[in-house]
Specification:
Length: 300
Amino acid sequence: MILKIDRLAVELPMPTEPDPDAAAAVQELLGGRFGEMSTLMNYTFQSFNFRGRDKAKPYYDLISNISAEEYGHIELVAATINGMLTGASDESKTNGQVGVTLPGAKGNRLSHHFIVSGLGALVANSQAQPWQGDYVFNSGDLVLDLLHNFFLESGARAQKIRVYEMTDHPIARQMLGYLLVRGGVHQVAYAKALEELTGVEVPKLLNIPDIPNSKFPETRQWEERGLHRVLYRFSPDDYRDVNQIWKGPHPEDGKEVEVVDGPPDGAPRPDTPAELGIGAPGYERGFLEEIASRLVSGRR
Ligand code: MN3
């Protein structure tokens, strides 16, 4: 089972200037082959299908535990896309009127944001191709699955860096700074799991990471707090054996890594206002607010 907390993993800046073009690029990090939907679903199904877990509990605990953090990552990237699309319908020019030209939609490369999702995040990549279940690699062979997860985190990191280069939107940069650090933790965690299991020294195969977080100023606030060395234990009582794998020095700074009990504190979810230009959540101003307030007062 999973416990849901109505907070984001980190604070995102409030929406100011919309940038639908950059929001389209960020979609790749949500629903692309190497996006957060893929990390979430790979680790989730690998944990559901794990056989013989009593004898391999630290590995089961690691994969299950990381899958829970990934839920918060799809949530954070979706919130980023929503923030970047806020204001894109250019309500000032339509004033909630149906039948006038939607000025914000012109020239943007992802029409799905305007036509299909009401300026919301899509479960799709930067070309609006839907996320697919066959992005999940779950062979049942633990070494192969861990090797795949290491590859997935490495590819995810490379794509985050490319999207970082494509936009300096403050919401995107805040999300990217945090997820470069957290994805880096998961990359190192799967490398450590492989080392424990096979004896192979993964850092001799390639540098982890190949481009350090220090190249990206937005990672600094998290690195200074040591978040690159922390694995959160996302459960009140379970997955305690993650500390059998998440131990020893961090490959970059050589300092001891640590397991922190419980999820990160997180931050309130920024409110994204109505987009009357596209009728989200409805064309009529104040209608839903009135119904909702009647529901609430009726309960008292
Ligand atoms: Mn992630």
